[in-house]
Amino acid sequence: MLGLIAKPRREGIAYWLWAIGIFIYFSVIAGGNVRHDYYQAIIIPFICFLLAKGAVLAMSLSRTTYSRFLTLIMSVLIFSLMISLSWYDVKGYYQINNWAIVDAGKAVDSKVPADALVIAPYNGDTAFLYQTNRSGWPIGFEIEDKINKGADYYVSVSYDDEARMIEKKYTLVEKNDKYILIKLTK
Q1: Strand pairing of 135-137 and 117-119?
Q2: How far is the C-alpha of 27 from the C-alpha of 23, rounded, in Å?
Q3: pLDDT tens digits, one per residue of 76-112
Q4: Which of 46, 50, 48, 54 has the alpha carbon at shortest distance from 2?
Q5: What pLDDT is stored for residue 60 in this prediction?
Q6: Distance in angstroms (rounded) separating the CA atoms of residues 150 and 136
Q7: Residue 95 class from Cβ within 10 Å (0-12 exposed, 13-18 middle, 19+ buried)?
Q8: Phi, psi values for residue 183, rounded to 5°
Q9: d(CA 128, CA 106)
Q10: I want to staple 53 with a disulfide (CB 3.0 to 4.6 A). Which of 6, 25, 182, 186 is the partner?
Q11: Which pLDDT value is given to residue 36?
């Protein structure tokens, strides 16, 4: 907030034009869906700029109003809280809740050629496909169409109707209680 009230120096009105440009971008292009990272990425440099301006303002006020040491301690404390609370909020995004996808990914990585395209259905979540270290599709369905587009293998951590149908129709590579790996050739 201090960055918003800081007196403009060399930048003049440039950062106000920057703010207006971001607002127009969010209003016109992003619309109401600003939760995606690629929409938020445009505002991060502006927020960093405002935080830096606020820190400079706080340090300049400390010479006249209150202790510079207190200002430095408070700035470090606020910065530390900002980083730690942000990590506390997002750390759950980096936890693997289903270790079967890791095991299946290791199996694919060891038994499938590096250039193979893989179908790794996991409700559209690309985390499973990432574990395979291969390119491909994070969702099943329309298997024949995906084979025509170059899919070589199918791996799944759920033995559902689709996995059973593919197992009957194509070559089974490996199957256990955690995953099934199928080569998409007859």
Answers
A1: parallel
A2: 6
A3: 898 899 899 999 988 887 787 889 999 999 999 999 9
A4: 54
A5: 79
A6: 9
A7: exposed
A8: -85, 130
A9: 11
A10: 6
A11: 67
The CA angle 77-82-83, to the nearest 5 degrees, is 100
Determine the pLDDT at residue 58: 79
- What was the pLDDT predicted at 48? 87
Residue with the two structure tokens 């080569």: 183
Would you state the pLDDT for residue 111?
A: 96
- With 90 as the cut, is the pLDDT of residue 2 above it? no
Please enumerate in sequence order all residues whose Cβ is within 8 A of that of 169, keeping only pairs 6 or more positions apart, or say none: 186
d(CA 42, CA 26): 10
Q: What is d(CA 90, CA 119) in angstroms, rounded to the nearest whole number?
A: 28
Question: Which strand ranges, in their side-by-side order, compose the sheet holding 117-119?
Answer: 135-137, 117-119, 151-156, 180-183, 171-175
Q: State the amino acid at position 112 in one-letter form.
A: V
Taking only the tens place, the pLDDT of each residue in 109-118 is 999 999 999 9
138 contacts 101 by C-beta, under 8 angstroms: no
Residue 166 φ then ψ, to 5°:
-70, -35
Q: What is the DSSP string of 7-44?
A: PP-TTTTHHHHHHHHHHHHIIIIITT---SHHHHTTTH
| Domain residue spans of the chain | 2-94, 99-183
Task: Tell me the whole-structure pTM to 2 decimals.
Answer: 0.60
